[in-house]
Amino acid sequence: MEHDRIKLRYRKLVFFTWFLTLDLIMFGAFVRLTDSGLGCPDWPGCYASVTPIGAMHHIDAASQAMPFGPVTLSKAWIEMIHRYVGATLGLLIIAIVVMAWRHRARLGRSPLLATVTLVAVCVQGAFGAWTVTHKLMPAVVTSHLVLGLLLLSLMTWLAAREQPHLALSAAAARWRPWMRGGLLLLLIQVTLGGWVSTNYAALACMDFPTCHGAWVPEMDFQGGFSIIRGLGELPSGEMISQSALTAIHWVHRNFAFVVFAYLGVLGFRLRTEPGIRTPATLLLGLLLAQLLTGLTTIFFQWPLLIAVLHNGGAAGLTLASVVILVRLASAGQRPVQPA
């Protein structure tokens, strides 16, 4: 009985932490899309205070000096709530690691994956701090986004191991390299999407399927994809050009068709396997949702809710892909049973 209680407690902790990780990624998109990333321009506090309440004097002074600037009371709260949730997530992952090591024999799991997840959340926290101290430098913010999805992938891996599912035939193992390739393509597309978002290039092309009325518009790839530079700048310090923003948007838009076609065909093929039919169906549904939210972002000029949902769709595609990979790893083995 004690053995079963420990396994159940661990499973609940893992699933709750996984859910909070997904929520944090969605809220992180909200922080970025509401321009709240510098709502508190220091770290870890807000003007050295634990909450914006203790920083009211500084926030009022900053908002009066720049009424439409990055610091306002609402933005400060949005940024600090994001940090509070991130700190809570870190504590929960520490608890998972402690349980994984302490009860590794009873859980029947190696604590290595939980430990790697703890390292990942620490690195993610460091990039969160650098996002503020480097004044929303696109390379840092994009890395923060990608590492957030890596953390979600690790948490999904932890959770998927605890989820019972139907047995997969040994023949299903042939899909592993294809799914790995799909996850790699998705990672590239997510990185490109992060680069679009952090450079505010979502509206660089206002028409579809053409861009500025052309299939291949005038673009500055060197300026758009120069990595080491400040927000809204070129490496030379000049303001980033429209042609550079167009290059960023155009590459993300067109690579999306590659990802859509690859994962779409793969998803339909994977639905023939009962053990992965549900996540494969979710993958297909999210692909369609990403297409619709991406187009809506262009046609309706980047509405906040749709933009947040588009970011959430990327997270959903990531977790569906990881679940499929975890289940494919058990192809030919006995089905996972609940504890």
From TrEMBL:
Kindly tell me the pathway this chain contributes to: Porphyrin-containing compound metabolism
- Show the stretches that span the lipid bilayer: 12-33, 81-100, 112-130, 136-160, 181-202, 250-268, 280-302, 308-329
Does the UniProt entry include the keyword Repeat? no
**A single GO cellular-component term on record:** membrane
Q: Which InterPro entries match?
A: COX15/CtaA_fam (IPR003780), COX15/CtaA_HemeA_synthase (IPR050450)
Task: Give this protein's Gene Ontology molecular function annotations.
Answer: metal ion binding; oxidoreductase activity
Example GO BP: heme A biosynthetic process
Note the coiled coil stretches, chain numbering: none
Q: State its location(s).
A: Membrane
Instruction: Enumerate the Pfam families for this protein.
Output: COX15-CtaA
Topology versus the membrane, per the UniProt entry? Multi-pass membrane protein
Asked if the record carries the keyword Isomerase, the reply is no
Q: What is its main location?
A: membrane
Alphabetically sorted, this entry's keywords are: Cell membrane, Disulfide bond, Heme biosynthesis, Iron, Membrane, Metal-binding, Oxidoreductase, Transmembrane, Transmembrane helix
PANTHER family hit by this protein = HEME A SYNTHASE
**What is the name attached to this protein's record?**
Cytochrome oxidase assembly protein
